[in-house]
Design goal:
The chain is an alpha/beta fold. The protein contains 21 helices and 16 strands. A hairpin with a 2-residue loop joins strand 4 (147-150) and strand 5. The two termini are 26 Å apart.
Length: 486
Amino acid sequence: MKRKGALLMAFVMGLSLFTGCGDKKEDQTGTNKDTQKSNGVFSGELEKNVTIRVLENDTAISRGYFDELIAAFNEEYKEQGITAVDANMDQYLDLANDGPYGYGPDVLYQANDIIMQYAQGRHIYPLPVETMDCYKQIPENAWSAYQTEADGSTYYCGVPVNVQAPMLYYRSDLLPEDWETAWDQDGNKVPDMVENWNNLYAYSVERHKEDSSKYGYMKSLFDVYFSSGFLFSYGGYVFGDNNTNPDDIGFSKGESEKGAWVLSQLASAMNEECIDDTITTNAYSKLADGTYFATITTPDMYSTFISELVLVYESEGMSKEDAETKAKENLVMTTLPKLPESGDLTEEKPALKDSKSMGGVNGYAVSAYTKAPNASLAFVKFATSYEMQLKRSEMLGVAPARKDAAEQAGGVSALLYENMEKGTIVLMPSIKEVAQIWTPAQTFFTDVAKDAFRPEGKKKYKDTASLKAGLEAVDTQIHDAIFTLK
């Protein structure tokens, strides 16, 4: 009865509000993205005297950005009686199951792979993106993360807000005193250990040798989101045809085994906490207290690192203002180091290549279950404006998807935007089959990390040939999960 009730509600709402993304009826969704602006959902006037529930990122809420966003929006639309409020729901809400019962936000902020899973189930609306001032400021590869096809027409079911990709975080005050003479061979005033993985590996080994309680680069290697980029750098990929064809699974393709070998070498300079998520959870405090020199994570965690470092400085007697100034001076966030073409981190004077990474584009979508679609669209337009994307970048340290905001923010935001344009950031697939990659790949990366601490005769992956075979097994497991075992 519960299931029948949900289906009936979804049907009734579908009749009254038209259909969400993924529907193939031309008379309901329009024939192309140019006609979306006049389709049945968004062609009416703004609903007045309504409350819009917005599901936001937890970091944006905790750092105060969301309060500023809804306060500014509510002031802008107070004459229409439109009020945006915190949906007060878990950021990982399951809209597909909860939306039909009326439990869900009107507007949601999520990563592209999550939003587009909702699109395939028609739980969110295609949006008239060409009516938004951000449309021409966002590159096509960012829009493609929210793209879906129906009857030969293209629709966009989300609006990109910020680019997510792994970034290197390090403490400049933990560099050796002689780094300018011993660790800057090209004399460009940038430490070699943050420019290429060979030098970062060498420095990690040296730092731990000098003090067994200290480490150089530290990261939980089982994390597929971060570790898969090492495979991509040597020719691997998730799915073929630009991550749209799940028949073609490519973790083992190209020379991706070299990337796995790099991970194995990095693990040898860490401790066993790299096997599970221990480093992921303690990296903020360990970087702050000087145990770790460097790690990688996404740009939106910058403020968390700063907060931890401020607490350490305050505990040493600094005022809050001085502690914040010193923390921002000493914490550096930059793009990933270059990799050796050979995959050998011990090679001297290696030929280097750019690192690739798995990235994503977080954005806003409008629920197909909202009773105020036009007011919800107004919120999305407001939240993706130049001013608010710049404010989000300033407060959270994220990289705006808008070119004008990224250029104004400068620094890492501009670099991330450039990397996205040139293709070193490989956007996470937006098709539902991506859900099947995590367990097989995580198991493989966990074993690679464990090998660093196994006796020589018991290592699972003894050479690049065995790493290649392991990655081929990952491809097979993912294929079976998608097509055979579903």
